[in-house]
Amino acid sequence: MLLQSARDRAAGLNTAGYVTGYRGSPLGAVDIQMKRAKAQLDAAHVSFHEGLNEDLAATALWGTPAGPNCAARGAMTGVFGLCMARDRGWTAQAM
Asked: Which of 21, 44, 60, 82 has the maximal Cβ count within 10 Å?
């Protein structure tokens, strides 16, 4: 997320990032690392919010273009995001 933010800035883009997922992600404790890196993420305009479950986390990520930093509101030229989920949750979303 920090690298994507830096790449966007280098390209002249004013973007914001959003990371979400359920607590206790099996992806190497990504949620814990995001909390530890809060200062760096804030400086790069990347927000981390835990999801109550995978469905709500995915819904939150899909809604980021309509959020307060949306390009349509003039604050940002775009958004990028990451959602941590187990396969089961994504399968449920697709059905």
From this structure: 21
